[in-house]
Design goal:
This protein has one domain: 3-Layer(aba) Sandwich (Rossmann fold), CATH 3.40.50.720. Helix 2 links the parallel strand 2 and strand 3. The protein has 9 helices and 9 strands. By secondary structure, the chain is of the alpha/beta class.
């Protein structure tokens, strides 16, 4: 158990279920304070009663920028500081890229990318002022590459990671750290709560092949294992920019990286021939 002098304050989005709930419980169990936010906070009421004074539960839709700014301000006022910010809130919409409506595509980006962007903008003034803090961006295996039916989900995670790489460099000068966490499979309700596109008939053969692959079943892990990994991450004096969670995602990351390097090497002659410095036109 941490002492009052070493306890830290967490701000966790999507905290009512799945990985967010596991992160919340793990932080509380070690004696830290937590601001747990979610669209529906009712599942957190029992936990709130069990940790009076250490858990602040606030309703929040992360796609509402004004609400995010106000909620972060209220959280900081309540506990006096923010040490660890976990952008965990996320949603998944499955379907072939061609099948997505504009509304579905924008909704995917609103939660997974813009929600994290608004939280990052909201917490940075406080983290800058205290010249300390750690932002943890929960990405996904889909942030490693695009796969059939996860194109827009991957797009949202690619956007999150690109933004986060820049934010990490911008925040470093103020003593603020940032880590992109890429989890593999965990037993959450991400898949059971996801939305789906209306299937187009031409993709039926590909869907059938994918369903055949998925029929073997998924062997996922308990969310508490991800929480233990995040605890180790935030306890590190030199946390990495990226952290893979799980053997499957670890191996896949290396496979994808090798494939990309092989492709780049195979087309090196074209890449290098496409560049030849010349003076500015009209100089």
């Amino acid at each position: 158990m941490r002492t009052a002098d070493t306890a830290r304050t967490w701000f966790i989005t999507g905290a009512s279920r799945g990985l967010g709930r596991a992160f919340t419980e793990a932080a509380l169990e070690r004696g830290d304070q937590v601001v747990a936010v979610a669209r529906n906070v009712e599942p957190l009421r029992e936990l709130e009663a069990a940790h009076p004074g250490d858990l602040l539960v606030l309703p929040l839709d992360v796609t509402d920028r004004a609400a995010v700014l106000a909620t972060v301000a209220a959280a900081h006022e309540h506990f006096g500081r923010l040490d660890i910010v976990v952008n965990n809130a996320g949603a998944m919409s499955a379907g072939m890229v061609e099948e997505f409506t504009e509304e579905q595509a924008r909704a995917q980006m609103e939660v997974n990318f813009f929600g994290a962007l608004w939280v990052g903008q909201a917490v940075m003034p406080y983290l800058r002022a205290q010249r300390a803090g750690h932002i943890v961006q929960i990405s996904s295996i889909a942030g490693l590459g695009g796969f059939p039916t996860t194109g827009l989900y991957s797009a949202s995670k690619f956007a999150l990671e690109g933004m986060s790489e820049a934010l990490a460099m911008e925040a470093a000068q103020f003593g603020v750290k940032l880590t992109i966490v890429q989890p593999g499979g965990y037993w959450t309700d991400l898949y059971t709560s996801m939305t789906a596109t209306t299937p187009l008939p031409p993709y039926a053969p590909l869907r059938a092949e994918l369903e055949k692959q998925w029929a073997e079943g998924s062997i996922d892990s308990e969310p508490r294992l991800a929480a233990q990994a995040v605890l180790a991450l935030v306890d590190s004096d030199e946390p990495p920019l990226r952290l893979l969670l799980g053997s499957m995602v670890y191996d896949l990351a290396f496979d994808i990286s090798r494939q990309r390097m092989d492709t780049w090497a195979g087309w090196e002659w074209v890449s290098r021939a496409a560049e030849h410095a010349v003076p500015a036109p009209g100089a």
